[in-house]
């Protein structure tokens, strides 16, 4: 392969083994057609991956093998006549309707594409699989095999590996539904070894993927910061007619405030989702996800953000206005980490939760009359809750494989041995101190001016996002 050409990889295998799903996940393309009915893919289709408007690699989806034994038989005869066995096979069978899918799937192999062979590793090896692998060996093309196990069973893995060793010098486990960013990169790294001539081109591809990911993380940090600034400075104001029911207006105004905040958060989430190329399908969060909880719910405020002690410290540094909350804490309310048995009782929530989100102010206005204003927030825990929710959302988005379409609720039970806290509770005191300064600047409405605090928070976020990208998939959120 010449170094300036775009590497082309054909994904081949038996029908319904997950070829299109693997392609969709690898190429981060949710337009790839996937179906539980075998024979979904009938024509070869090319899916280019572009970075900065430049095509860097191309994956080709192919129909499944229909008659592998017959193809192999013919190829074994043809190989005595020519080196060009696949092209000759295609010419000879071009008008045989029964072989139309086989002729189609072999097309990219006549054009020098590399091969990724996909099998469902949760079933045993059959003789048709051996025929398919032998066909691929006869092509002489660079090739690797992928075990895409649809079930969790590992009973047949040893069998598959033994079989692969005979035909492929590279094989990997890769799950189209659960592969993470790190696993995608690892697969490309492995692909490098299918042929020496491919190494430098694939190095370029991997480095483009990494740079693109870093660019997306930078953009995500920007989206999160903008969202924080909007939420923390947010106010809702209404005029207060004489004789109006003040209590009711206060409740209304707080509701409106919360509604607006939810909307700001949703817009940020949609932007992050687009950055990671989830454009078509709507993802079902794992049924245990804390993100199912409303942003202002008791569970959210107990599970995410800082612990009580950390809040006391944060308040000490920044005087961020949680004095009332601390009084309630001192009165003996437990602010422990939310457990499956239940969160805090009302008193606790009142202290750290929505009641204390912001003060309600009654303002006189120049032309006479009065206004009632809710916000900006004076509760620093709000910043941490917003941060944790966006980081958790990010971790879902980057680990949502594009090949996964069935919306099945994630049945993974949450780990019980892990502390049920978000990310920010683990942040260093330096990072928290940056947050305190950022909070003060943002609540004064002075965000978005490239302040030091904003730049420092951006750095913290980029490190955190990179860490999440390289971590294993976390199901506990
Ligand atoms: N649980 C699970 N299901 C998978 C996985 N990969 C694919 N599937 C399912 O298997 C079915 C077939 O997937 P496709 O990607 O369409 O398979 P294909 O090999 O392209 O099929 P054809 O185009 O029909 O040859 C779909 O219902 C997928 O959702 C996986 O990793 N885990
Ligand atoms: Mg398919």
Helix content: 40-55%
Radius of gyration in whole Å, from Cα? Answer: 28 Å
Q: Number of domains in the coordinates?
A: 2
Read across the widest sheet, the strand sequence of neighbours is 2-3-1-4-5-6
Beta-strand proportion: 5-15%
Q: Could you say which overall geometry the principal axes of the C-alpha atoms support?
A: elongated
Please, could you describe this protein's structure?
By secondary structure, the chain is of the alpha/beta class. It has helices at residues 19-27, 68-78, 85-93, 100-105, 107-110, 127-139, 157-167, 181-191, 199-233, 246-275, 298-303, 308-318, 323-330, 346-352, 380-398, 429-443, 452-470, and strands spanning 8-13, 45-51, 54-61, 114-119, 143-147, 171-173, 236-240, 358-364, 370-377. The chain has 2 domains: 8-194, Rossmann fold; 214-470, no CATH class. The strands form 2 sheets. The protein has a 6-stranded mixed sheet with strand order 2-3-1-4-5-6, sandwiched between helices. A 3-stranded antiparallel sheet has the order 7-9-8. The structure holds guanosine-5'-triphosphate (GTP) and magnesium ion. Magnesium ion binds next to helix 1.
List the helices and strands and how they pair.
Elements lengths: L7 E6 L5 H9 L17 E7 L2 E8 L6 H11 L6 H9 L6 H6 L1 H4 L3 E6 L7 H13 L3 E5 L9 H11 L3 E3 L7 H11 L7 H35 L2 E5 L5 H30 L22 H6 L4 H11 L4 H8 L15 H7 L5 E7 L5 E8 L2 H19 L30 H15 L8 H19 L7
Parallel strand pairs: 1-3, 1-4, 4-5, 5-6
Antiparallel strand pairs: 2-3, 7-9, 8-9
The structure holds guanosine-5'-triphosphate and magnesium ion.
The site of magnesium ion (MG) has 5 residues, from helix 1.
